[in-house]
Amino acid sequence: MELRPYQQEVVRAVIDSVVDRKGLTFSVEIARQGGKNELSAHIEMLLLTLYVMKGGTSIKCSPTFKPQTLISMNRLKDRLNDYGYEDNWQAEFGYIIRLGAARQVFLSADETSNVVGHTADVLLEVDESQDINKDKYSKEFRPMASSTNATTVHYGTTWDDGTLLEQTKQLNLELEKEDGIKRHFRYPWEEVAACNPNYGAFVEAERARLGEDHPLFRTQYRLLPLPASGRLFSRSQVTQLIGVHSRVRSCRPGSIYVAGIDVAGQDEQLDELVLTRPQRDATVVTIAEVTVVDKLPQLKVVEHYAWIGEAHHKLYPQLVNVLKNVWHCTRIVCDATGIGEPIAAFLQASLGKRVELFKFTQLSKSQLGFDLIAAVNSGRLKSYAGDGSTEFAQFLLEIEKAKSQYRPNQTINFYVDPSEGHDDYLMSLALCIKAAQDSAPRVATGGLRSE
């Protein structure tokens, strides 16, 4: 079997524990695309071969049946075929692969799945352990290995310090100190790159694109956990975000501009649309000049507009004038969530396809947050220099006060705590980055590639 040295190390430890009935629990962290799933499939094929006559059951659980469990099943089928078993294995009930008297069972760990009653007497595998609910695992999966003292393996990439994978890892490290038996295996991207130079070149480009401390790069490639919550930007990141260019009031000929619009909430009173919390809630437009360096958009924020206490129907003509006549924006992303939908729809009707309606959901906002962090880390996003204005002061305040919350499903929430202010400028900036990604600006030469 052609496995890399780090994969072979895990295989030896797992097979040794299974064959000698040691009942150890292992945790395996391998950088993204480093061969974790291939490792798992090889272990499964080895155990099917070893127990083909004697019989036995191994179980693998994944966060979802579609696509994760199905992908794992197909990978094992491919490995069995590769090694000459194509006429010997059978599929049963849509979730079991049998070779002789040995069985490999694939189950979903989705919180709604019904898995009670299965027993793993050979091996219990937990795929993407960081995404599996700890209570679900403890109540329904862990007991599958208890009566037989079966070996257990948790695979994944780290996330925050509260996941099942991190909990298992920390316990394993403590046990290692007591008896010297290696239970935790960690292979960050450098280890994978040592075996695959092409992989190393790809990850280097990702580090430049995202920044070394970007949550996704930090967890999926460096395998370093995140705090559950904290500041979205460090002091050095805030400093890096502020540029040296001046704020400008209108477009330059030949330049490309995009806009992000965060819409203030409002209530309807006495047939008039009145903003709620007018002392804080604002409709904010962020204007940025966009160029492309090494195929990545570079943004210079050049102007902010903010309307506080302005009824939405009075904003319509002002927004159209700013976006169409003052800046000639090629791409505009507007908050279309809830009360923002009428403004967004009006702008799209007035300005056409250049306007994208954006609805905030947990997933869509998370992606905005990751893209915002990447743009700041890489130096591709710069604000105009401080000019003593109310707009800049509020923008800087929100950037400094912005908080992050990392969720178990590998998403991020970002916001300003209401007790510390509001996040209109922050969200408008994030939407502006989205607009830049979808625009078609001219290509610039020179500069540093970062991401």
Q: How does this model look, in words?
A:
- With 451 residues, the protein is of the alpha/beta class.
- Helix content is 39%, strand content 23%.
- The chain folds into two domains: 5-197, Rossmann fold (3-Layer(aba) Sandwich); 227-438, Nucleotidyltransferase, domain 5, CATH 3.30.420.240.
- The protein is built from 14 helices and 19 strands.
- An eight-stranded mixed β-sheet has the order 3-4-5-2-6-7-1-8. Strands 16-15-10-13-14-17 form a six-stranded mixed β-sheet.
- It is elongated and about 80 Å long.
- Residues 266-280 and 440-451 have low confidence and may be disordered.
Give the SSE map:
Layout: H1 5-19, E1 25-30, H2 36-50, E2 56-62, H3 65-82, E3 89-92, E4 96-99, E5 102-108, E6 123-126, H4 134-141, E7 151-156, H5 164-179, E8 184-187, H6 189-195, H7 197-210, H8 215-220, E9 229-231, H9 235-241, E10 256-262, E11 266-269, E12 272-275, E13 283-293, E14 296-307, H10 312-326, E15 331-335, H11 341-351, E16 355-358, H12 362-377, E17 381-382, H13 390-401, E18 403-406, E19 412-415, H14 424-438
Parallel strand pairs: 1-7, 1-8, 2-5, 2-6, 6-7, 10-15, 14-17, 15-16
Antiparallel strand pairs: 3-4, 4-5, 9-18, 10-13, 11-12, 13-14, 18-19
